[in-house]
Specification:
The protein is mainly alpha-helical and 141 residues long. Helix content is 52%, strand content 11%. Strand 1 and strand 2 form a beta hairpin. Helix 2 packs across helix 3 and helix 3 packs parallel to helix 7. It is globular, with a radius of gyration of 14 Å.
């Protein structure tokens, strides 16, 4: 379960934008995404089931929401290095927040760092599916 390092989702997004601004081109940004994906906490093999697989992704992505102390936490993994980095970014912004905070936080960092322009259509669709799953989980919480 990825715990937030920033006090709130807005600060997490600002930190992500600042980090990506450091890199001059997209080959460096992709490498950074791959490195971020390696920071995802271990995800139990037993959780890699069809029931936990995110629909809408070309790569395999498994996600399990948890509720604790009034906050939603998400554990997730992917079989793709770049997608793992995208998962890490989403969890950094949304995991460990209240449902209200999640619902009130649009994923502005996606546009701000240029992800929407530089992801393949299949990765973009998968990332959108991940963000939609997180929002839907917050709505039903």
């Amino acid at each position: 379960m990825l715990l937030p390092t920033e006090a709130n989702a807005a600060e997490a997004q600002e930190a992500i934008v600042e980090e990506f601004a450091f890199f001059g081109d997209w080959s460096e940004r992709y490498q950074y995404l791959i490195d971020l994906g390696k920071r995802l906490p271990d995800f139990p093999e037993a959780w890699k089931t069809e029931a936990n697989r995110l629909q809408g992704c070309q790569s395999n992505v498994w996600i399990v929401p948890h509720r604790q102390d009034g906050k939603l936490y998400f554990s997730a993994a992917s079989d793709s290095s770049i997608v793992s980095g995208l998962v890490y970014l989403a969890l950094r912004v949304y995991s460990g927040r209240t449902a209200e905070q999640i619902r009130a936080t649009p994923a502005d960092f996606v546009q701000a760092i240029g992800l929407s322009k530089h992801l393949s259509p299949t990765r973009s669709n998968g990332f959108s599916a991940l963000l939609a799953f997180i929002q839907k989980t917050a709505e039903s919480a």
